[in-house]
Structure formats: C-alpha cells, structure tokens
C-alpha cells in the first residue's frame, strides 16, 4: 500500500511529524514501512508552458520546432520529438538549468542546427512510471488542462512535493489498505483524532429504485450489494488533484467516473465498480454463480471462460462483471456515458480469491476482498463516491440506494482482565494505562474494577480474542518497553544419545578429511533410485517447479556425485564429501513415507599429497574402507560390523562391499562403475552409504578401562598359500575362531601373487599376537595354539604354510 | 733431564694444538701419557738420579703430565663439539618447505550455525526435537491455526505430494507434534532445526530447500517478556554483544501477539546503508506467544498454559554472519566454499 503523506493529512493532523518520523513510528507499531519516496526531490526549474506554434523541424522529420510561452518577456524556441505536441497545448517544460530524475541536467542546446531552450516533458521524464501515466499520454508529452496557468511550478502542481510511504502490510492488517484505515492507525500511534470525509447527501427527486432492480441468488457469496444511479454525467479527465493522488498511489487515471471509484477504493478500502447504465443490457442486476463455460470479456479485453466456482454480476441474461475482480468490457464507462450504475458490495473473500487465482487476475479490488473489507463502510463509500462523481462529472445522484442485504454484523465484544494481560506480557500496567491505549484505538469499552469489555469496530476484523487485545495494548505501549526476562522453570537441556552420536560421526569423518555437504532431498525421476539400497516406488510431487526436483530421493549418493562433478569441472581435483540426510521410502500413496537417516560419502583425488617429497596416494577402495573402520571403532560398533563382497547397480562389480551390522546389510562401499562415471562426468570416485539410523541405534558397551598389559606378548608371522578366491576376511575369521582366548590380534601384513606362488593361488601373511593377562606365555604353549590354527585354516580353506 | 721434560711439554702441546680429530688426540694421549710413553719412562728412571735432583725432576714431570692431560681434555672437548656441530650442519634442512599437512574436513556452514544455536539453547535448558520432512496437512497447517482457505496454504507456494501430504514449509509442525506428545503437560522447551521447502525457483535469494530453526517453550506463566529476554540472549550470542535489537509487531497465524526481530546493521552500525536498505535494521526472525487455538488444538489448556515460539532462517543467519551473498552456495558444495568454514569464527 502506497500512502501519500500529503493526502493522509486530509484525515489526520501530522503537525510536527516528518515523513521519516511517521515511517519509524508505524514500523515500530507493526505497520512496516518498506521505503519512503520523495517524488519531487532533486527536480528543479519545471514549469507550465504554452505551445504557441508547432511546426516540422527543417532538418529532421521526426522533430518539431515549437514556440513556447513560459510567461517570460519573449516566447522561446524548443525542439520537441513527441508525436503529440501541438499548438495551443499547456505542457510541462524543463527550462535550461532544470534537473530531472536521475540527476539529468537540461541545457540550452542546438538540435540539428536549431536552438532548443529546454525540453517539453512527458510524465515519465519527470519521474512517473509508465504504469500510472494516463493512456493518452503514455507515448508522448503530457498535456495539462486548458486552465493551467503559464509559469506555474510543476512540482507542487503535480503534488510531487510529497513523501510516499510504502507500507508492507501483514495479512491481518487489511484495515490499513485504505487511507482512512491508515489514519486510524496513525491516530492511535500519535493519539490524535481522525477526520472523516463529509458527505452532504444532496440528491435529485428521482429514485434509484425506479431505474434498477436487484437480485442476489447466492447471499452467502455476496451478503451485501448496493447500487446507486448517477444521471447526466459528462465523462472527461479528472482534475489534476485527483489524478495526482491516484498516480502517487500507483493507479493510472482514466476518466472522472472510473477515477472516483478508484479514489474511494483507496480512501475507504471499499472496492467499487461503475457500469454504463445504458450499456448494462437490462434494468436488473442479478448476482449468481457462473454457469460452466459461460464467457465474459473483462475490461482488459481478455475473454474469460467461467465455472460454477466464480461469482458473476449479470444483467439477468449474461455476465457483465467478475464479482470483486474486474468489470466487463461491454458495460464499461466510455466517453459518451450518460448514466452511471455504481456498485458497492461485500463479496466473500474466498470466492473472490478463487476467481482471481483461476484467471490470474489480481486487482486492487480482489486483494481487498480477499483480505477482508469493512462491511460497515459499503454504503458510506457508495454515497461518498456518488457525490464525488456528481461533483466532478456534473451529474445528479438519484435518491436512495438499491440493496440486497443479508448481512448480520454482530458487534465483537472482548472481555479481559488486567491481571491476565500483565501475566501474559510480563508488564505491570495499571487500569489507567490500558484505558489510555484503548481510547487511542478509538474502540469503545467498559471497565469494571480491573475487568475490561471492549467493543471492536468492524474495520478491525482481525481482533477477536483477548490475546488480540493484548497485542494491541502491547504494541501501542511499545514492545521496546516490555521487560526482558527468562522463563523461570528449572529444566535440563541436552542432546539425545542419538544426536550426540551424530555429532561424533561428523567430527570423526571431518578429522579424516571429509567435508560436510548438504544437498537437496528432491531429485529427478532418473536419479531417485540410483544407488538405492532397496527398491521402492517413487514419491512424486504433484506440483514440482522443475523435473530436477520432482521426486524424493532414495540415496544420498547421486547428489554427492553431482557435487563431485561440479567440483571437478572447476578444477577442484580432490573432493572428499560426506552428507547426513534423509531418504524416503514409500508406505503407500496416502501415507507419510518412512524417512531414514543416511550417511553417505564420495571421495576422489589424492588422499596423501606431499608433492615435493614425491608422496602421492590416490584414494582407493581401502582408503574409504579404512575411514569407515575408524568411524565404526569410534562408535564402538566394530565388533558387530562385517564386510562381504557386494553388488549394486552403478558400482564396480569387483570393488564393492556390503557393510553388515549383526549380519544385516546396512550399507555399501565401492567404486563408481564406468557407466556412472560417464553419466556424472567424474572419474575414480569411491562412495559409501549407510543407514545411519540403524547404526546409531545399535546398543553398545559403555566405555570402561581395561588394564595395560603387564606381561609380554608373543608374536608369530605366518604366510598361507590359498586359492585366489579365498577372502582375507574368511581366513581371518577362521584364525580368530581357532585361536580363541590366547590370540589377541590377527593382522594382515602382506598379500602376494606371482613368482614362487603357484598359478591361481595367492599368499596371505598374518601377524598373530598371543597374550595372557595373568602370566608370561611359554613358547611351548604358543606352538600348540599355532598348530591348532594351521590345522583349522587347512581344514576350512585348504591353506598351506608357505615355505 | 729438565731440558728433556721441557722439550716434551713443548712438543706435546704442539701436537695437541695441531690435532685434527678425536682419533689423533687419542693417539697423542697414548704417545705421551701411556704406560710406554716418555713421561712414564722418565718417572721410572728417577732412581738413577741424584737424590737431591729427584724431588725437583719428579715435581716437574708431574707438572708436565698434568699440563698435557689438561690440554688433551680441553682439545678433546673442542673436537667433540666440532664433530657434533658438523653432524648438525650436515643434518640441517630447509625449514621453509611446506609441512606434511593432513587433509582435515569441516562442518557445512549451515550445520555450524545450527550446532551453535543448539548449544546456546541447551545451555538454557532446551532439548533438540526433530520431525519429518514430508508432513501431513494437519501438522503443517491445521494444528498451527492455519485453516483450510488461508492464503498460506496456496498450492502455489508448497510442494504437494497428495492433497494431504506435502514437503513441510516450516519447522513448526515439530511444535505441534511435540505438544501433542506431551499430552497437555508442560514444561516443553525445545529447539527444532530442520530442512524446509517452498515452491520457489532457485536464485541468489531464494532456494526451494532451506533450513529453519524453531524454538518453543510452553509452561505455566510464560510471559512475552520471557520471549524478549530469550531473543536478546540469542541475538547477542550469535551476532555479538554490540548489536542492538528491535522488536516489531507482526502477524503469524500460530502466535498472538506476534513480532519480528531486527538487529542493528553491522555494516553501517545503524546509520543506514545498502545492506539494510537504509533502515539501519536487518530483520532476522519471527516470533510470538503461542496462539491459544494452537495450544488448545494440541492438547494444552490455554487458561493454564502459555508459551512462546520463534522461527529463524538458518541460511539468513549464516549469510549475515559470514557475509555470504548467494543462497545457492549452500547447496552447490563447492569445496572452495565449504573449506572456508574450517577456521574458527
């Protein structure tokens, strides 16, 4: 809502309050002022000129050589490029030395050999946006009314010596979508009285009801409809004061009738519509729901196809207006209109919003109906508008108003206690303080001891509950004046064990070189199922913005690969990323999906990079696995974790492992296969993904100290020759099982294939460490254990000791 | 004999002086002081001297031996030091060459902000609550006093899956879920961080996915002044003690009274600049007293209980705190961006 400071002064005394004071006070009271515009600022030397003569420029087809009277001794020559310049016009002239918006300076100059003593201006050139410039002058200079006096300063004439406040209103403060509403608010803030416009009520002898009948078929959509008739109007441009007020408010002037409806809309917040009575098509207004596929061409010359959802004004036969949104082209007020049918109504906001959305038409009217207008101003606004039309367009207002009224306006009464108010806000106000604030709001009230009963005026439909009153009182008392305290309870905060462990996961992975990334939960149809640990139906958005974010993801890996790809394309060659985020498993069409928290990582580049020492180790499968092993150790779940050869679409079949927790697959680690490398335009990327939820929910032992070994341990190395297919993990498990209590550690230290090892076989060497916490082991004891182990691996895997 | 000793002393001292290494010194020691050395010889031959000569020559011989011993020890030490110095010189390296730095990762800036805020409120006795990203219409809107025909529920603004399921547009449904679970019994003190979604095109200031942190306190006797004190604590801890705060009345369907909080602009110190659009203030969060309808709908008696809630955009805090100018950076995961948040504040 744009509010002219000058115009606002018609309703409230702003003495001693500058526009910026006002903006600050409004903002602090909850009506946020987004900006203040001073349209006249920096403008200089702009006056009314009279074009005495206009002829073609001798050296340029598109220019005119004009002789302009500026009220000085001699008329001056000005070259003008506007197509509509003509002798006899009163125009806006920027004299040499003038300044225009954007700090443009006008100088005496020569244009194609002819002297130009200034410039004849369009409204855009003096700072108005094209949107508000009257259509007739949109492509040329502005022509002032005949009676304008030569030499008059333009800035005050166009009310540009003003400040325009741009109010950013919250949804509940639709009452401030009118000048009078803003005046009430300012009155409450400044504790000053509001002056309402005077309505004289002069009417002709004829009665409106003789001219028009009214039928509202759906009163729930339209609880109040009023119609007035103004006869013998003469359509023409509005006076400048009216045009400039409209333009300052962002509305384009049209003619003296339409302009009045817009003016009253701004003044009262009551949308109005003027029909040409003679073009209306009948003597009867019928308000009803549209029929399916019924057509209406609106004022913007667009043919609209209607449905039963839309409320229309009809002439009994066909629609003439889309109620509350826009009038029809056929019944529009035109230059030859003689009689005006003026509509002032109260339409249901939901119905108006539906029509406005369906047709993509947001108008000054529709936005007010949607947010809620004051039902008690419907008639008053109509009377005031009719009178103003009669005054400006020279007509006469017919007696009375035709109306269909099914509206019941119950006054809203709110009871509240001073004690409760103070308890909720944390203040220590007295009855007297509260009374003063209610008076400033101009609400009527009663007070009985410390109990208040407030009657809320219909313009403030946002106030219904005691809490609403608390807010009114608190905001006018000043939020700044509320004390600062903290809740007085004693409670203990903290993270849940799960949340703590999640932070440990982050810290651990970061310590190992990975950077946390955050990617989108929504992905594309194509990517949603890539790298998914389990197949599931897609969960699709009904109204996506783009295909790239239209389905919920089942894996975090695809977007991590996108991030890797993005980085590689920018020459960030080493990329180690991890993410913790949700994946979504469908539980059926109308059920909330199962959200599983996953942990995933993607790594490529050099894990060790000490170039001047010649040490460069690219990330490989075992780097990533090692990182996970450290993580599992940190979470004390290592002993529940196993790996097995795995397979997953998108991963290298020979370099993929499933990760199992208590024998159940909870994730994978592996290398991206060539297809995916191509798809994502990446190379040598290793990824992992885990169902973090399951991992962190695993019950683990509490941390307890175990004593430092007192006795020496004994280590023995063995190298085993086995078939190539036998996995180190299986061998290790057999060794561990056979070694039982005395065997404390089994470590792989060498894997070898080639010379001295038969074809199809490999050698795996282990260091076995034996230890007894109670005593020093003897060699004999160890030999016995060692033999048992050798027998076990031979039996289980056909392993031979390498000689 | 005397001359012989003097001659020996002179000769030995010259040798010692000229010794090049420890081995040579060792040899000199053996040569002059050894059992077969000249001094031992002389002392052994004392018996052949005249009795009156003996003490003189004996004393001289001992003196010469001590002198040589002393000199040898001194030289030994010198040479030993020189040898150490030489070894150290050989081992010296270019200390300006780069160290063997380990790659260490770090938190995403948004997580960094979230954890900072979580810790701040944990210190005030809050716990951290979380909820699903796919919400039902009921928890996302209805339970928060946003009725069916409310403009905030426009299909245009939210990602719907079905008529009843949508990507949550705010973290507030966690409020409703937590209250419902508490079955009408306070206190509740929670902070709820999480991902949220709006139907926006991604650009420098909009992101279809973003993060919010919601706070909720419900108890008997919670006052608006408690909210004010809490918000001031939050703002000063996160943005610095020198920042001023301002509360402005505002409107949200789930709170009444409602407010927005501004902090004084860091760039201009409140005088007005392009960052704060000339106002001197920057809006950072919305808050208010929990609406009685919300309390009632979620099982709390609004006569007995009251509460406050606030919601803040995590990206907004991070952008203001670190001076980030484009919201898309948070989701592009360019390592050159992410790595900047390795260092402390």
UniProtKB/TrEMBL annotation, chain A:
Looking up NCBIfam families in the UniProt record yields: pheT_bact, YtpR
Into which family does the record put it? Belongs to the phenylalanyl-tRNA synthetase beta subunit family. Type 1 subfamily.
Q: What is its EC number?
A: 6.1.1.20
List the lineage, top down. Bacteria, Bacillati, Bacillota, Bacilli, Bacillales
In the UniProt record, does the keyword Zinc-finger occur?
no
Q: Which PROSITE patterns match?
A: B5, FDX_ACB, TRBD
Can you name the source organism?
Answer: Fervidibacillus halotolerans
Q: What keywords is this UniProt entry annotated with?
A: Aminoacyl-tRNA synthetase, ATP-binding, Cytoplasm, Ligase, Magnesium, Metal-binding, Nucleotide-binding, Protein biosynthesis, RNA-binding, tRNA-binding
Q: Which subcellular locations apply to this protein?
A: Cytoplasm
Q: Does the keyword Ligase apply?
A: yes
Q: Where are the transmembrane segments?
A: none
Q: Name one GO cellular component term.
A: phenylalanine-tRNA ligase complex
Protein name, per record: Phenylalanine--tRNA ligase beta subunit
Q: Sorted alphabetically, which InterPro entries does this protein's record hold?
A: aa-tRNA-synth_II/BPL/LPL, B3/B4_tRNA-bd, DNA-bd_dom_put_sf, Fdx_antiC-bd, Fdx_antiC-bd_sf, NA-bd_OB-fold, Phe-tRNA-ligase_IIc_bsu, Phe-tRNA-ligase_IIc_bsu_bact
Which parts of the sequence belong to the TRNA-binding domain?
Answer: 40-155
UniProtKB/TrEMBL annotation, chain B:
Q: Which family does it belong to?
A: Belongs to the class-II aminoacyl-tRNA synthetase family. Phe-tRNA synthetase alpha subunit type 1 subfamily.
Its assembly, as annotated, is: Tetramer of two alpha and two beta subunits.
Catalytic function, reaction form:
tRNA(Phe) + L-phenylalanine + ATP = L-phenylalanyl-tRNA(Phe) + AMP + diphosphate + H(+)
Q: What is its EC number?
A: 6.1.1.20
Q: Which residues of this UniProt protein bind Mg(2+)?
A: 256
Q: Where is the Aminoacyl-transfer RNA synthetases class-II family profile domain?
A: 111-320
One cellular component term (GO) for this entry is: cytoplasm
The UniProt keyword set, sorted, is: Aminoacyl-tRNA synthetase, ATP-binding, Cytoplasm, Ligase, Magnesium, Metal-binding, Nucleotide-binding, Protein biosynthesis
Instruction: Report the source organism.
Output: Fervidibacillus halotolerans
Q: What is this protein called?
A: Phenylalanine--tRNA ligase alpha subunit
This chain is encoded by the gene named: pheS
């Amino acid at each position: 809502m744009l509010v002219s400071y000058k115009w606002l002064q018609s309703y409230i005394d702003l003495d001693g309050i500058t526009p910026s004071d006002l903006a600050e006070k409004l903002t602090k009271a909850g009506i946020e002022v987004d900006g203040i515009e001073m349209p006249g600022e920096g403008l200089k030397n702009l006056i009314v000129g009279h074009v005495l003569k206009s002829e073609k420029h001798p050296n340029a087809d598109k220019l005119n050589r004009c002789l302009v009277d500026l009220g000085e001794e001699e008329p001056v020559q000005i070259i003008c490029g506007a197509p509509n310049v003509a002798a006899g016009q009163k125009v806006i002239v920027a004299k040499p030395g003038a300044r225009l918006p954007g700090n443009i300076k006008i100088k005496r100059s020569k244009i194609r050999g002819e002297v130009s003593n200034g410039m004849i201006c369009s409204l855009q050139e003096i700072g108005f946006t094209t949107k508000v410039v009257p259509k007739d002058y949109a492509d040329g200079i502005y022509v002032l009314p005949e009676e304008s006096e030569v030499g008059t300063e333009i800035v005050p004439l166009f009310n540009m010596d003003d400040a325009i406040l741009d109010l950013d209103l919250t949804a509940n403060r639709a009452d401030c979508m009118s000048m009078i509403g803003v005046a009430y608010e300012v009155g409450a803030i400044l504790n000053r009285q509001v002056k309402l416009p005077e309505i004289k009520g002069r009417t002709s002898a004829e009665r409106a009801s003789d001219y028009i009948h009214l039928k509202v078929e759906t009163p729930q959509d339209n609880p109040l409809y009023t119609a007035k008739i103004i006869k013998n109007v003469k359509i023409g441009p509005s006076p400048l004061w009216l045009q400039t007020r409209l333009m300052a408010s962002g509305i384009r002037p049209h003619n003296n009738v339409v302009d009045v409806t817009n003016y009253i809309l701004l003044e009262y917040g009551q949308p109005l519509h003027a029909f040409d009575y003679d073009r209306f098509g009948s003597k009867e207004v019928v308000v009803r729901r549209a029929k399916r596929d019924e057509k209406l061409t609106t004022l913007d010359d667009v043919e609209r196809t209607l449905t039963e959802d839309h409320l229309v004004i009809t002439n009994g036969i066909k629609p003439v207006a889309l109620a509350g949104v826009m009038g029809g082209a056929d019944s529009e007020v035109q230059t030859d209109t003689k009689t005006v049918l003026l509509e002032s109504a109260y339409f249901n906001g939901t119905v108006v919003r539906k029509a406005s959305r369906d047709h993509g038409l947001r108008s000054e009217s529709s936005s007010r109906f949607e947010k809620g207008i004051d039902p008690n101003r419907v008639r008053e606004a109509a009377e005031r508008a009719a009178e103003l039309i009669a005054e400006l367009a020279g007509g006469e207002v017919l007696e009375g108003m035709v109306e269909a009224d099914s509206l019941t306006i119950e006054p809203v009464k709110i009871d509240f206690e001073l004690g409760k108010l103070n308890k909720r806000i944390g203040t220590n106000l007295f009855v007297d303080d509260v009374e003063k604030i209610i008076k400033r709001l101009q609400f009527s009230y009663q007070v009985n001891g410390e109990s208040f009963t407030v009657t809320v005026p219909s313009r403030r439909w946002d106030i219904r509950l005691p809490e609403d009153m608390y807010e009114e009182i608190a905001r006018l008392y000043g939020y700044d004046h509320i004390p600062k305290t903290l809740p007085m309870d004693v409670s203990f905060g903290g993270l849940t064990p799960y949340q703590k462990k999640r932070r440990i996961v982050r810290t651990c992975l970061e310590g190992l070189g990975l950077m946390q990334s955050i990617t989108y939960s929504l992905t594309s149809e194509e990517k949603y199922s890539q790298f998914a640990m389990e197949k599931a139906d897609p969960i699709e958005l009904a109204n996506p913005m783009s295909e790239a974010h239209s389905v919920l993801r089942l894996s975090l890996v695809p977007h991590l690969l996108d991030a890797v790809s993005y980085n590689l394309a920018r020459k960030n060659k080493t990329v180690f990323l991890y993410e913790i985020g949700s994946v979504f498993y469908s539980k059926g069409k109308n059920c909330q999906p199962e959200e599983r928290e996953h942990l995933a990582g993607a790594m490529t580049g050099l894990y060790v990079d000490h170039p001047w020492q010649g040490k460069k180790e690219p990330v490989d499968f075992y780097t990533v696995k090692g990182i996970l092993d450290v993580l599992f150790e940190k979470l004390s779940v290592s002993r529940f974790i196993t790996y097995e050869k795995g397979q997953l679409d998108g991963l290298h079949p020979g370099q993929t492992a499933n990760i199992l927790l208590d024998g159940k697959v909870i994730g994978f680690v592996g290398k991206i296969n060539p297809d995916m490398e191509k798809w994502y335009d990446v190379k040598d990327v290793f990824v992992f993904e885990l169902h973090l939820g399951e991992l962190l929910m695993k019950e683990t032992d509490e941390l307890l100290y175990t004593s430092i070994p007192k006795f020496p341990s004994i280590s023995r190395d063995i190298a085993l020759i086995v078939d190539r297919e036998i996995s180190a993990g299986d061998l290790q498990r057999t060794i561990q099982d056979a070694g039982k209590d005395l065997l404390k550690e089994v470590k792989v230290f060498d894997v070898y294939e080639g010379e001295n090892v038969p074809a199809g076989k490999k050698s795996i060497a282990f260091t076995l460490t034996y230890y007894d916490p109670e005593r020093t082991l003897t060699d004999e004891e160890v030999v016995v254990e060692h033999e048992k182990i050798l027998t076990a691996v031979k039996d289980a895997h056909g392993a031979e000791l390498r000689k | 004999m005397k001359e012989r000793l003097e001659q020996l002393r002179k000769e030995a001292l010259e040798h010692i002086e000229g010794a090049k290494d420890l081995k040579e010194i060792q040899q000199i020691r053996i040569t002059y002081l050894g059992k077969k050395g000249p001094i031992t010889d002389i002392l052994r031959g004392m018996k052949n001297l005249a009795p009156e000569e003996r003490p003189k020559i004996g004393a001289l011989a001992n003196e010469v031996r001590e002198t040589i011993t002393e000199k040898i020890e001194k030289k030994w030490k010198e040479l030993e030091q020189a040898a150490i110095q030489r070894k150290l010189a050989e081992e010296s390296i270019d200390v300006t060459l780069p160290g063997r730095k380990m790659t260490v990762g770090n938190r995403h800036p948004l997580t960094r902000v979230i954890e900072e805020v979580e810790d701040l409120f944990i210190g005030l006795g809050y716990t951290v609550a979380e909820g699903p990203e796919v919400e039902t219409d009921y928890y996302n809107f209805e339970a928060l006093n946003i009725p069916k025909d409310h403009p905030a529920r426009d299909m245009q603004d939210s990602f719907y899956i079905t008529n009843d399921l949508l990507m949550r547009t705010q973290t507030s449904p966690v409020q409703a879920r937590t209250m419902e679970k508490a079955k009408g019994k306070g206190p509740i003190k929670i902070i709820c961080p999480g991902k949220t979604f709006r139907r926006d095109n991604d650009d420098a200031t909009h992101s279809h996915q973003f993060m919010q942190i919601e706070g909720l306190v419900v108890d008997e006797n919670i006052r608006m002044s408690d909210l004010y004190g809490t918000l001031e604590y939050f703002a000063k801890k996160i943005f610095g003690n020198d920042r001023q705060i301002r509360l402005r009345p505002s409107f949200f369907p789930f709170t009444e009274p409602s407010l927005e909080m501004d902090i004084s602009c860091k760039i201009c110190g409140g005088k007005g600049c392009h960052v704060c659009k000339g106002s001197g203030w920057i809006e950072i969060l919305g808050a208010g007293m929990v609406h009685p309808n919300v309390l009632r709908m979620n099982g709390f008696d609004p006569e007995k209980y009251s509460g406050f809630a606030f919601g803040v955009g995590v990206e907004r805090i991070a952008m203001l705190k670190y001076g980030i100018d484009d919201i898309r950076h948070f989701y592009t995961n360019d390592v050159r961006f992410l790595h900047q948040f390795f260092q402390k504040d």
